[in-house]
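A reminder from the course coordinator: this example appears on the midterm review sheet, so study it carefully.

Given structure:
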């Protein structure tokens, strides 16, 4: 698992910068950034990232709307919703929209890289995260 391409989508530049910092010195390479869901869909089609880190609350098109479109247009692309909302209901909504995983911004520093890596590990009983 090396050089997996990541698209970072968040309407706040400071959050995008923070996510880039988390990905530094990891097997993930940032291939692009977007500030709303509409651009996320367009850049997913153009850049063909392996994974999209997607905020839920954004202008133009929400993260849930973008996740559903990305899932329909690019099924192999992994989607992780990275959000401030620490809510089991919202996590369920994200998965229903097509997200593979849900990480809160508060825990991203500790959990994001492991969650991303788990999405690319072979499916086993010990690794249920990859079962979306």
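Designed residues:
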């Amino acid at each position: 698992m090396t050089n997996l391409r990541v698209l970072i989508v968040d309407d706040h530049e400071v959050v995008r910068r923070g996510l880039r910092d988390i990905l530094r010195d990891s097997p993930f390479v940032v291939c692009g950034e977007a500030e709303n869901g509409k651009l996320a869909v367009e850049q997913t089609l153009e850049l063909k990232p392996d994974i999209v880190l997607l905020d839920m609350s954004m202008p133009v098109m929400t993260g849930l709307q973008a996740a559903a479109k990305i899932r329909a247009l690019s099924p192999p692309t992994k989607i992780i919703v990275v959000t401030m909302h620490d809510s089991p209901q919202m996590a369920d909504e994200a998965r229903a929209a097509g997200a593979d995983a849900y990480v809160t911004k508060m825990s991203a520093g500790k959990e994001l890289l492991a969650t991303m890596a788990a999405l690319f590990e072979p499916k086993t009983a010990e690794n249920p995260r990859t079962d979306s």
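The radius of gyration is 13 Å. Residues 36 and 58 are 6 Å apart (CA to CA).
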